Amino acid sequence: MNKILTGFLLLLSITLNAQNGVWTVEKANEWYKKQPWISGCNFQPSTAINQLEMFQKDTYDSTTIDRELGWAKDIGFNVMRVYLHHILWTSDKEGFKERLDDYLNISSKHGIKTILVFFDDCWNDVYTAGKQPAPKPGIHNSGWVRDPGTMIYTNPDTLKVLEAYVKDIMNTFKNDERILMWDLYNEPGNQKSVEKSFPLLKAAFAWARTVKTIQPITAGVWNNNDRFKALNEFQLKNSDIITYHNYSYIDNHAREIIELKKYNRPLICTEYMARRNGSLFGNIMPLLKKENVGAINWGFVAGKTNTIFAWDTPIPSGKEPELWFHDILRKDGTPFSETEIQTIKQVTGKN
């Protein structure tokens, strides 16, 4: 039997029903009532190109993290969504957990809670611990890495490592009020994976349900194409709190909120705000506040991730685009748009 088939059979042999332990609608809504209106962003310090550079010993930059989270507090943000990576754990288990704890201490000092993300199907498939590549001029997320990526298809032993990793991190922080939520899998099926990501998605929920956390778990829906129907149904059925991504104009976003409210669970938009697409602070953030939907935009301080450049529109010269795609502030803390800052402060109540 080849390694690929063996790996999938091992994944599919996980018999624990992921639905066991899903919060009731009542519990989910009671939890949400205790939270302030959730506002924040997907956070990567400007000095880190990816998840590895953010948390590895040689590049963990607590000074920048502290400064930038202070700016986030000043505009009324109270939640950051932060990506982890299993290589951080396999290469330096205890050091990684210490640095994660330090990050949580810094964020908590600023009154900011954290959504932690385990797996991710976006961007580069090849990664390694140690020194990370420099950004490629003008290319959006040129150094961002998937987790675990396609290696899981050819290295089935990776599954055992991933299980140990998820359970260890969750057990370590399962009663930690600095963590708002566990986001098990970012955009499963992206990079043309689609159904290939289903076994790991199911496994991640099964592993997470064995840990009795005080925090809810989720995995956000992000693609309404029919090919993702099974993935979406599973995510919606097994998430305690419903999360989703929407980078479209306000009409589309409003319709999605109506559809997702049919599940009667709290909603948090964990990715929005792409200026070129018309997904803006000025139109989307007030809509989310009005509908009592949490608002987590992509990007905060422009830096090594290059997310001021659009997904599919590189600028090889590296010249700053007139219209930033994502991000809010420059490295010195000045805003891309003062008008946007005033809008954010008005919606979050910081004005």
UniProtKB/TrEMBL annotation:
SUPFAM superfamilies assigned: (Trans)glycosidases
Keyword Ion transport part of the UniProt annotation: no
Gene Ontology terms describing biological process: carbohydrate metabolic process
Swiss-Prot/TrEMBL keywords: Hydrolase, Signal
InterPro entries (alphabetical): GH (IPR017853), Glyco_hydro_2_cat (IPR006103)
Domain of life from the UniProt record: Bacteria
Transmembrane portions of the chain: none
UniProt keyword annotation of Hydrolase present: yes
Signal peptide stretch: 1-18
Domain Glycoside hydrolase family 2 catalytic stretches: 153-277
GO molecular function: hydrolase activity, hydrolyzing O-glycosyl compounds
Name of protein: Cellulase family glycosylhydrolase
